[in-house]
């Protein structure tokens, strides 16, 4: 499963904030591990950065948190994810597009600062940078811009909608049409 440059940044930003997101959800490391079906140590290693988060782990985590947001109608959790993960990445995408429109050359491997000023914090990201072949495969032929997989786009949209509260009821109904996971 190839990961584009922008997807990797999204994954890295989510991993960087996994501990606070888990705590806002009110879960222990063990509870999150149980939700994911992995060992507690796996979650701990992701939170501490001992293990790099894979795209599959990212998608599983976003799905688990999105389901929890919908189940509890927890706008605070949705806002935290949107504020800590989605907004900084989306801002960087907008900045990059503006640079491209202004005719500035934007290198694929240019350091990205998504946390307000400390490029040194991106050292771990730089070590896991995708290969040129991966980047080339992840760009559309027409625009040459990085693309996001459908799953990553859907999760970002769902989290944004849940943060605003407009879609929480609809998603809850779609996920639990009988009234909830415990009502049977």
Give an overview of the whole structure.
Keywords: Membrane, Transmembrane, Transmembrane helix. The chain crosses the membrane at residues 154-176. Pfam families: HTH_3. Residues 95-142 are annotated as: Disordered. Residues 131-142 have a biased composition (Low complexity). The protein is mainly α. The protein has a domain at 1-100: 434 Repressor (Amino-terminal Domain), CATH 1.10.260. It contains ten helices and no strands. The protein has helices spanning 5-16, 18-25, 29-36, 40-48, 55-72, 75-101, 123-127, 132-137, 150-164, 168-175. Helix 1 runs antiparallel to helix 6 and helix 5 packs parallel to helix 9. It is globular. The N and C termini lie far apart (37 Å).
């Amino acid at each position: 499963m190839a990961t584009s440059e922008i997807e990797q940044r999204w994954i890295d930003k989510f991993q960087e904030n996994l501990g606070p997101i888990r705590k806002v959800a009110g879960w222990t490391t063990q509870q999150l591990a149980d939700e994911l079906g992995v060992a507690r140590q796996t979650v701990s290693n992701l939170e501490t950065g001992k293990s790099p988060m894979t795209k599959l782990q990212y998608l599983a985590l976003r799905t688990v948190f999105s389901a929890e947001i919908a189940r509890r109608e927890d706008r605070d959790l949705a806002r935290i994810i949107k504020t800590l993960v989605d907004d900084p990445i989306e801002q960087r995408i907008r900045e990059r597009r503006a640079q491209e429109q202004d005719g500035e050359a934007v290198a694929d491997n240019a350091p990205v600062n998504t946390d307000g000023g400390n490029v040194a914090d991106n050292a771990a990201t730089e070590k896991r940078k995708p290969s040129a072949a991966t980047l080339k495969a992840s760009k559309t032929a027409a625009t040459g811009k990085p693309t996001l997989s459908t799953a990553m786009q859907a999760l970002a949209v769902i989290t944004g909608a849940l943060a605003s509260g407009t879609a929480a009821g609809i998603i809850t109904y779609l996920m639990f049409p009988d009234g909830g996971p415990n009502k049977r």
